[in-house]
Design a protein that fits this description.
CATH topology of the largest domain: Aspartate Aminotransferase, domain 2
Number of strands: 11
Helix content: 25-40%
Bound molecules: iron/sulfur cluster
Strand content: 15-25%
CATH architecture of the largest domain: 3-Layer(aba) Sandwich
Structural class: alpha/beta
Distance between the termini: 25 Å
Strand order of the largest sheet: 3-2-4-5-9-10-1-11
CATH class of the largest domain: Alpha Beta
Radius of gyration: 18 Å
Low-confidence stretches: 29-34
Number of helices: 10
Number of domains: 2
């Protein structure tokens, strides 16, 4: 596993290119609600050009709930919504879909911990029937943590009088959680929600997903764009191919963007070290 390291010197791991990107496809921007839509557009490009057969991704169902789906068309992808506030177990769905004969090459969108699991499975296949060779691309979304859903839902109901089933979107920006409801947007200081972060997340050091091929997330300074981190030549080729084919537009990530992502990654690393030291 050499090369996959989060450290004070490399809080976002190794990479070869960093971009600001946004979708050029109608509706894809809406899908990620101002996040740039570049991940959706990239995946649509891969499906349209038959570079992959399917995408395994989380689809928001109701409020904070979601399910894992296998998207084989651009319509499937556009229907999938982006916000995840709990880690959904997708190993069973993964195995089930990768066993399908018409799926030979799959892209998977997940969180950094899931990207690590998938990469380990690829590097150390345990069974002859291992299906990890079908994984063509791993995309990891930036992650500061997910929430113990029942306790978090109870908190939202009790303190903010929110009905979790009506939540349209949640975004974490700086020290504030923005909760979009049908007729208002609530703001919640992150201090208040820290007790509801899953315990394992408090000792997780990886913000961007260093085990992925491409990491993607929001820039608070450049809203409307997606930050894309390409970690290998294949990732660069895919991003450039999507741009050449008119699915996304990109501009090189400038120093301020790199610093912004590193700042958040360092904050997560420091948090992990602090909580890990409490366990010793
Ligand atoms: S903080 Fe780490 S362990 Fe928690 S959901 Fe995110 S990537 Fe997974």
């Amino acid at each position: 596993m050499s090369g996959f390291i989060v450290s004070k010197d490399k809080p976002i791991g190794d990479y070869i290119a960093l971009y600001l990107a946004r979708s050029k496809i109608e509706r894809a921007e809406g899908y990620e609600r101002g996040r740039g839509g570049a991940v959706t557009a990239l995946l649509i490009y891969l499906l349209d050009k038959k570079i992959i057969d399917a995408v395994i991704v989380t689809k928001k169902t109701r409020g904070l709930e979601g399910e894992i789906i296998v998207a084989k068309t651009r319509e499937d992808l556009l229907e999938a919504a982006g916000t995840r506030w709990s880690v959904l177990p997708y190993t069973a769905k993964l195995r089930e879909s990768l066993m399908e004969e018409d799926i030979q090459r799959v892209a998977i969108v997940g969180l950094p911990c899931q990207a690590q699991f998938l990469r380990q499975m690829q590097l150390y296949p345990l069974l002859e029937t291992d299906f990890s060779k079908k994984i063509s691309l791993i995309i990891s979304l930036f992650c500061m943590g997910t929430y113990a859903s029942e306790a978090f839902i109870a908190f939202l109901k009790r303190v903010y009088k929110l009905n979790p089933e009506d939540i349209i979107d949640i975004q974490l920006r700086g020290d504030t959680l923005y909760v979009k409801m049908p007729d208002e947007e609530k703001t919640i200081p992150t201090q208040e929600i820290l007790p509801y972060v899953q315990l394992g997340c408090l000792i997780c050091p990886d913000y961007t997903g260093i085990f992925s091929d491409i990491s993607a997330g929001l820039s608070e300074v450049h809203l409307g764009y997606t930050v894309l981190i390409a970690r290998n030549k294949n990732a660069v080729k895919i991003i450039q191919g999507a741009e050449d084919a008119g699915y996304i537009e990109t501009k090189p990530g400038t120093l301020d963007i790199v610093e912004e992502v590193k700042f958040r990654a360092e904050a997560k690393l420091i948090r992990a070290v602090k909580y890990a030291s409490m366990l010793l």
